[in-house]
Amino acid sequence: MSQQSIFGRIGQMAKANINSMLDAAEDPEKMLDQMIRDYRNNISEAEEAVAQTLGNLRLMEDDLTEAREAAQEWGSKAAAASAKGDELRAEGKNTDADKFDRLAKVALGRQIDFEQEVGGMEPTIAQQTEMVDKLKAGLDGMKGKLDELQNKRDELVARSKMAEAQTQVHDALKSIDITDPTSEVSRFEDKIQREEARARGQAELAASSLDAQFESLDDLADDAEVEARLAALKAGGS
User: Fold this and answer.
1) Who is most buried in 153, 175, 182, 203, counting CB within 10 A?
2) Measured between alpha carbons, how far is 139 from 46 in angstroms, rounded to an integer?
């Protein structure tokens, strides 16, 4: 997979609007589970691509360092050969001096080659460095989006379980309303109250009957007193 395609996918997934996708989903929990799997797979691929790109960049940087060192080395060799040529020419050894001057030119040619190589690699390395930075930033964005997805899923599952529990409680309350045990208690209480009232009524009735009996006894006592006095009157008159 090319850097551009990886970078494009990272950017697209990192910018995804999770909330709007959840609103449009028939089964948000399943959609989130699938998205989490996709994100993990894409993050794994992106990490591999970034690692490979970063490795290639480090190799180019090593080559650049070697080319710069080689350019400096050949420059030093050119300077040394030129100095030796000047020294020999001063001594009148023109043939040997020409030989070292030719060596200096060869060294300068190699120096130029390496300098051109450095000049060609520097823009490429700068471009690759920028690409790696973007890939790493996109990868961090995907990881952040994955955390958001996982948090959304956990929140959704928790809300679903809470809603299910509330539904169960509501159903239980509805079933309790249908056969409310307090209504049975109320009926039993009413029955007891009626029995208590009847007992009080019986007690009052019994009390009134007893009072009547005592009143009858009082009447009998009065009659006996009258009879006794009448008998005494008769006995005194005779």
Assistant:
1) 153
2) 7
